[in-house]
Amino acid sequence: MKETVALDSAQARMRLPEAMADARAATFDLIQSRSMIVWGEHCSECAAPTCYTACSFYTPRPDGHCRRFAHGMETIETASANKTPLTRIAFRRWGKLEGRGPVGALEKADAANLEQALQPALGLGLTFLARREARARTAKHQALGQKAPGEFDAFMIEGAALSAETISFTLTLVPVDKASPALFQSQFSLNANWTRVSIPVADIARTIDLAQDYLVQIEPVGEAEGLEVLFGLCDFVTWAGAAQAIPPPSAPSTPAAKAKVVVWDLDHTIWDGILVEDGPEGVLVKPGIREMIEALDTRGILQSVASKNNHDEAVAALAHHGLLEFMLAPQISWGPKSAALTRIAETLSLGLDSFVFIDDQPFERGEVGEAHKTVTVLADTEALTLLDRPQFDVPVTPESKGRRALYAVEAQRALAAESAAGEMDQFLRSCDLVLTLARLSPSDAERVYELSQRTNQLNIAATRYSRDDVAAMLSDANGAEAWTLRCADRFGDYGLIGFAYGDPRTGHIRDFFMSCRVQRKRVEAAFFAWLAARCEAAGAHEMTISYQKAARNGPALELFQNLGFTLSPTDDTHGNLACQLPASFDGHDIVRIEATLAKPSAALTSEAV
Prior knowledge:
The protein is an alpha+beta fold. The protein has three domains: about 10-240, Jelly Rolls; about 265-390, Rossmann fold (3-Layer(aba) Sandwich); about 410-609, 3-Layer(aba) Sandwich (Aminopeptidase). Helix content is about 30%, strand content about 25%. It has a nine-stranded mixed β-sheet, with helices on both faces. Strands 1, 2, 4, 5, 7, 8, 11 and 13 form an eight-stranded mixed β-sheet that branches. A five-stranded antiparallel β-sheet has the order 3-6-12-9-10, with no helix packed on it. Helix 3 packs antiparallel against helix 4 and helix 14 (about 445-455) packs across helix 15. It is globular.
């Protein structure tokens, strides 16, 4: 049951693969009754209404609330005998599903009929009356159910990942009464096949009173931007007869090919001894650990801490041993370490699949591994083997050596942005942003290779260059130009953050990728305003670029569409983006451009635009 609808109220239709359709249809036979939670579109960082003017990610819906799903909640009609429609969601940053209880039970056929009856009312638009109608009629019919909220058998979620092999989520139930410390949370994954996950109600009821008001939330683990999911039934259910044997959850997903973050435990992992017993000066750093931390830092691997300790005492111990400066967003408390890793990932805006967690305790390793199946979990005895693992075989460049400092400066930027009064563009103008453009040079080739390997979200063609590919562009004699993008502001230097490759004479841009560190800071508008002028001067009438859909590059497509490029799909995963010339890009003048036109081997001349 949906509280909000798609931007385009017309229902979409898709043909499910046969195996997926069969698995979905089987759900109807498994259950006897179900609840009808009214699901809505919400923000995990919401502080409404203040955030509507202060948050740079605020995108208004017709009702004024923030749109955190790219296309709303799309109803997908299929030819299945199951009357319950599917819902397709393309998440944006901080997007989550949220519903509210308590809820009663309806016989499955009655629930399906009610859902069908209410859908046209919601299709009229995203209005307060439509939402109130959905809640009121659902509550009225559920009041006729024969079962009390606590008599359900399980909470069931079914669906499929559309943008990746596997996508991890958390299911959270929390009392509406904020004074209550109760919380239930469980992690689950949906994969490319139709997946059915069930959580016993008995487990939930140990901490949540299902007869009282509570919120139920489904939220992606880590970065939500660009994740696309197909959801079926997401409700409390009672099983039909002996249908307790629900298929197991999806197989564990795999970590990313390259590690970006190492999270360390402290006691008996970084140092010998127990801090609360021995004190900051009584614990000793284990042999080889300091050298490993420094080596990882040189390779651009970020590091943090997840430790069950007293915060101030642990920070003092890290500082005493000269290790505090290496640790970004350290999480030191007595809470679950899986939650600590989630907070670190959110702070750094990096996916948990690129995390490695090291701890001496089997319990802690098991707790993190169960909650975050994409995290690589290692014992303390394996800490000195990190550099021998393929995950840590990454190029060493000037940018990688300074990556920790870049993230530390970014934290200062974020703090300044939060405290700045007024709208975002005004704050950006105060940052004195400068974008430096130069032809690709041999000295930058390794960094361009590294950037192509590491960039996921803002990589429009999903490019993964080899070193030979980059070397070939240095000597391209066919009129194409390869450009590097560097950025700096009053807080510090971002380093080399982007790359573009194309022919100004034809206006065709063969490739563009950029670090998300400068996303939404008008850098892309400034660059493409400069490039549009260059292409027009060379005789081109439009700019074009090829798009290839990947698991996490949805933000790249959104970036180009926000700039005014129009997508013409060629198939389900490819398309062409075009922008007519001359073109204007909002906010391009916020960023000052300094461009070097000559090839590196020629005499350097500069052009300020």
